[in-house]
Design goal:
The complex is a heterotrimer.
Chain A: H1 4-25, H2 29-50, H3 67-73, H4 78-108, H5 113-116
Helix pairs in contact in A: 1-2, 2-4
Chain B: H1 3-17, H2 25-46, H3 54-70, H4 75-81, H5 86-107
Chain C: H1 4-21, H2 26-39, H3 42-46, E1 50-53, H4 64-68, H5 72-75, E2 87-90, H6 92-115, H7 121-139, H8 143-162, H9 169-198, H10 203-211, H11 220-237, H12 243-252, H13 255-280, H14 286-307, H15 311-332, H16 335-366, H17 382-396, H18 402-416, H19 420-446, H20 462-480, H21 483-496
Antiparallel strand pairs in C: 1-2
Helix pairs in contact in C: 1-2, 1-7, 2-6, 6-7, 6-13, 6-16, 6-20, 7-8, 7-13, 8-9, 8-13, 9-11, 9-12, 10-13, 11-13, 12-13, 12-15, 13-15, 13-16, 14-15, 14-19, 15-16, 15-18, 15-19, 16-17, 16-18, 16-20, 16-21, 17-19, 17-20, 18-19, 18-20
Classes of the chains: A mainly alpha, B mainly alpha, C mainly alpha.
């Protein structure tokens, strides 16, 4: 059986690489933005994977649990809190980029990055 | 062709290379100043390599000096590389990321 | 009173939200933003030095009763030293930088209120949000907290660019966002590696773990995290290869907006730079990395500034190039050099703001920023010309102005640390900076006026002149009495190195 944590780590690495590929090589701005969101999700998946514990429990101390058992079996709660914040930030950044993409499309009638994001001095 | 003629010719070449802008005295003289700045600062900063190996530094400075002078004018090439196009910026960003991570990761092990 | 420490972040954010709600009510927006902006610089002055633990979560070792009630594998190990909540540290460095940052924010808001007939609540929102987020970055002892506020600051920066009326603003903002969306997650991944190694994102905890040998400083994961966080740092401050986009965003915003944008970059530079120094100071090659990128930044930016023809772009490149001095100070890594770098950062924050606002007047008057089409403005505006000239002297390091003091300190520290090459390069670059400045000053003010140049409205708002004068007075005061801030800075650095 595959180790879930290892699989998730590899998956997050693939997300980042695929996202970088899309952001660099694809010309359409919307596709670039999708690539960017892939990079963000890869980073988030990486963070959340750090908190994984095989057969762990949710880090909430219930009245019928003994503290020693809880300490050895609960997952690490900090990355969850961090990822929650970073997802929110990522979503708002994405909203701003998409809004700018809309304005650019209205202005130029095209979404080709090499056309509208080329050198402005030429 | 001696080195003096080469430098002289390269200064003359500036006018052709700066075609896009209006040619004024200021533009040409500041381009020459930029050229001299970049050559001198690169040569001086390569002296920093003496902390690694002195002989290597001497060789690198000689080679670099020859390379920089024979490839004048550098500044028009540099400007072309640093324009506002997203693709060029992205290329250098990814190049830096790749070099940085590989140097940090493998350079020390 | 330590309760004032979190208020430095909370008040700007609440003000931002309030002003966004008030958008449309013109005079109310003006009054509220003016009052809050003038009160902000007072908070760092009134607050006491100290630590603030959010939610009262101090480290267990400070809380004896609780510590004794816990099992021994917590109370007798390093776990008791961990910072559980977010910690803010406020000292002399933070006091000086925040005071001048808030003062600059006030001037920017003051100019905007007087310049525009209709005040935009959303624009005020952006300025306050940006100020609040970089304040949090400077105060915070938590690298993830810094990352979050860094992303907020970037979004606010993009908003400030979009609020100008330059033709190319959307394109530049889009490029900045795309590059930023690569840099930001890379930084986050680096933080993730640190979190995986140490189990904490608190900078003090991480550096304690390195010092006490809990983590191996040359383990591949630690090195990898250094590479990623360092990349995030060069993105956040605009060292190469990000110097082109950084100078482009400075040149697309309004003059007061550009002043704020560069101030944000300086504060982000200092806060992330100090964090990197604290976490990775044990790595042998970190100084070489910082020096290499700073040198590239200085050389490339200054040469690009020389051959540009757009006035605002030139100052943008000069601003990015000056950041190289800070980087060299951090890279040399002695106590004197880091103190000098912090002082240089403070000076740059003020001087570059002066130049952006001062040369911004030209754009308002003539509607062009191409230096080949300008000239002869000294006849109509001699006062501004002289003030901008002194500001340029300060940037180039002419005594007795503040730029001279900090650059002298940097050069001395380079010589003391056996880096004479760096001292020579610093002098060389400051000469070229001076030359670039004289070039734009000459073409805007001293050159004969071109026939086709029309001056649209000859009256410059008094608020702009007053702001330039205030910034100039700060330059002169800091130049004559550098010990006002340097003493505090060296105390802070003494605790660090």
């Amino acid at each position: 059986m595959i180790d879930v944590q290892l699989a998730a780590l590899l998956c997050s690495g693939c997300f980042i690489l695929v996202g970088l590929y899309a952001a660099i090589f694809l010309d359409n701005i919307i596709k670039k933005i999708i690539g960017i969101s892939f990079i963000e999700e890869g980073a988030n998946l990486f963070l959340i994977t750090l908190a994984y514990k095989p057969k762990g429990v949710v880090p909430i101390l219930l009245p019928n649990m003994s503290p020693d058992w809880f300490i050895t079996n609960s997952a690490y709660p900090l990355p969850h809190a961090l990822v929650l914040t970073s997802v929110v930030i990522g979503a708002s950044t994405l909203a701003v980029i998409l809004a700018i993409a809309m304005v650019l499309y209205k202005k130029h009638g095209s979404l080709s990055a090499s056309e509208i994001l080329g050198d402005s001095n030429e | 062709m001696d080195i003096y003629t080469m430098i002289h010719n390269s200064v003359k070449n500036f006018q052709n290379k700066l075609k896009k802008d209006i040619i004024t005295n200021e533009n040409v003289s500041s381009a020459i100043a930029a050229e001299l700045t970049i050559v001198s600062t690169i040569l001086i900063s390569s002296i920093l390599l003496r902390r690694i190996n002195v002989m290597l530094t001497v060789l690198i400075i000689l080679g670099l000096g020859l390379y920089l002078i024979t490839n004048m004018p550098l500044i028009s090439k540099l400007k072309k590389e640093q324009d506002d196009s997203l693709n060029k910026m992205m290329f250098y960003v990814i190049l830096t990321l790749g070099i940085l991570v590989s140097v940090v990761y493998w350079g020390v092990l | 009173m330590n309760d004032l420490i979190p208020l430095m972040v909370i008040i700007p954010i609440i003000a931002a939200i309030l002003l966004n709600v008030l958008h449309g009510k013109n005079s109310l927006v003006k009054i509220v933003s003016f009052i809050i902006a003038i009160c902000l610089p007072l908070i760092p002055l009134l607050s006491n030095y100290g630590l603030h633990y959010f939610g009262g979560h101090s480290p267990l070792i400070d809380n004896g009763d609780l510590l004794n009630s816990l099992p021994s594998f917590i109370s007798n190990t390093n776990l008791s030293n961990l910072h559980i909540g977010i910690t803010y540290y406020f000292g002399g460095l933070q006091k000086a930088i925040l005071f001048f940052l808030f003062l600059l924010g006030f001037l920017a808001i003051f100019i905007t209120i007087n310049e525009r007939k209709r005040s935009s609540g959303s624009y005020m929102f952006l300025i306050f949000m940006a100020l609040g987020s970089v304040t949090a970055m400077l105060l915070s002892d938590d690298i993830f907290h810094m990352y979050i506020f860094f992303e907020i600051a970037i979004t606010a920066q993009v908003g400030i660019i979009l609020s100008s009326n330059d033709d190319q603003r959307y394109e530049t903002a889009m490029k900045y966002m795309i590059l930023g969306s690569i840099g930001g997650p890379i930084l986050l991944t680096g933080i993730g590696f640190l979190l995986g190694l140490v189990g904490s994102v608190n900078i003090t905890d991480i550096s304690n773990a390195v010092k006490n040998g809990l983590i191996d400083p040359i383990s591949p994961v630690f090195l990898f995290s250094f590479g990623l966080i360092f990349f995030g740092w060069i993105y956040s401050v605009g060292l190469p290869p990000f110097h082109t986009i950084k100078s482009a965003i400075y040149s697309k915003a309004t003059p007061s907006g550009s002043a704020i944008l560069q101030a944000l970059s300086v504060v982000i530079f200092l806060s992330f730079g100090l964090a990197i120094l604290r976490i990775y100071s044990h790595l042998p090659f970190i100084n070489g990395f910082i020096i290499f990128f700073s040198l590239c930044g200085m050389i490339l930016s200054i040469t690009m500034a020389l051959i540009e023809t757009d006035l605002r772009r030139i100052i943008g490149f000069l601003a990015v190039g000056e950041l190289g001095y800070l980087g060299l100070g951090f890279g040399i890594g002695t106590k004197l050099s880091v103190t000098a770098a912090l002082f240089q950062g403070l000076n740059e924050l003020i001087i570059t703001a002066l130049l952006f606002i001062g040369f911004g007047v030209i754009l308002q008057l003539t509607k062009t920023s191409n230096i080949n089409k300008l000239g002869g403005l000294i006849e109509s505006h001699p006062k501004i010309a002289i003030m901008v000239l002194i500001g340029g002297f300060a940037m180039a390091g002419v005594p007795p102005l503040n730029g001279f003091q900090s650059k002298l300190m940097l050069i001395q520290s380079a010589l003391n640390a056996n880096f004479p090459e760096l001292a020579i390069i610093m002098i060389l670059i400051s000469i070229v900076t001076f030359m670039t400045f004289i070039k734009i000053f000459h073409s805007a003010y001293l050159k004969p006026k071109p026939k086709d140049l029309t001056i649209e409205k000859s009256l410059v708002p008094r608020s702009t002149i007053l702001s330039i004068a205030i910034l100039l007075i700060i330059c002169i005061v800091l130049g004559l009495m550098p010990e006002l801030v340097v003493k505090d800075f060296s105390v802070f650095v003494g605790g660090l190195i």
